[in-house]
Design a protein that fits this description.
alpha/beta, globular, six-stranded parallel β-sheet, Rossmann fold, 282 residues, single chain
Length: 282
């Protein structure tokens, strides 16, 4: 289980209207809501079946508390994501970022991911060479357009790239930002951008939410969620001593290689599968 999709619809507060008439409309009409396989009613039913599985894996503590199972955080290919294979200055030049101090957000922006808090911090700092570089975009709605309309002066958006290209573009970052907000949707997700940054030895500025402090293990910079002023202060302090920040980034790569690489994930899964073969209860 790598997400709590019901959280997108209100989580445990979501209720299906108990009207038989409404149910009939939703199931019988050609465009009825219950003709969509990801309707929250089906999500709720599926959650009730999790206990029937022979084994369950989850990738956050939040999901483990909710569904049980074995905690297997997402593994990173630290051979592919190897900073020694890339020159940050060359990468910045390739992506048109040479003139900027780059705060990178590698992923699809959503409100609960806190990108607005970073942009508010840049409003406060008002330093013309700072940029938030977003890799990809939101496939769900017009949230990208909203961000561009309100904070376009701070944003550079690079189209979604193949996975194999991500190490190169992440190498262009000075800092990677993971400003999650304290919401169920955020708590349920393991932000891959975090281990992207760690594997590439990048300084990480993250919020003190969910598993993020545990994953970083003291190798990143933490702020309270939804705290633009704290983010602004951290950005200033990081760039005042970027050498120190880069040393933290090197420590985070070491931590990623020891705890969050593909091999570590494989060991956890092997133990689980071996136990299943022996008909043990997980």
């Amino acid at each position: 289980i790598d997400d709590w999709e019901l959280s997108w619809h209100g989580g445990d507060q979501w209720r299906y209207p108990p009207s038989l008439k409404q149910f009939g409309r939703d199931i019988l009409k050609p465009q009825g809501a219950l003709r969509m396989p990801d309707h929250p009613l089906y999500l709720k039913w599926m959650e009730n079946q999790v206990s029937l599985a022979d084994a369950v894996t989850v990738h956050t503590r939040f999901l483990q508390e909710r569904f049980g199972g074995v905690y297997v955080p997402n593994g990173k290919d630290t051979t592919l994501f190897n900073p020694q294979n890339y020159n940050p200055e060359v990468s910045r030049e390739r992506y048109g970022l040479s003139d900027y101090r780059v705060l990178m957000f590698p992923g699809a922006p959503r409100p609960y991911k806190g990108i607005e808090d970073v942009l508010l911090a840049l409003d406060k700092l008002d330093q013309p060479d700072l940029r938030v570089v977003i890799i990809g975009g939101s496939p769900y709605d017009n949230y990208d357009r909203y961000l561009q309309e309100k904070w376009g002066r701070w944003i550079i958006q690079i189209p979604k790239l193949p996975y194999e290209k991500m190490p190169e573009v992440v190498s262009a970052a000075h800092v990677v930002v993971v400003p999650q907000r304290n919401t169920p949707a955020a708590l349920a997700q393991f932000p891959l951008k975090l281990t992207d940054a760690m594997a590439m030895s990048k300084p990480v500025l993250a919020s003190n939410v969910g598993d993020l402090p545990e994953i970083l293990g003291g190798t990143g910079y933490l702020v309270d969620p939804e705290s633009p002023n704290q983010i602004a202060d951290r950005i200033e302090s990081i760039f005042k001593d970027l050498d120190l920040a880069n040393e933290q980034g090197q420590k985070s790569r070491k931590r990623c290689m020891e705890n969050y690489n593909i091999e570590a994930m494989s060991k956890e899964l092997k133990t689980l599968i071996d136990n299943l073969r022996k008909h043990k209860t997980i």
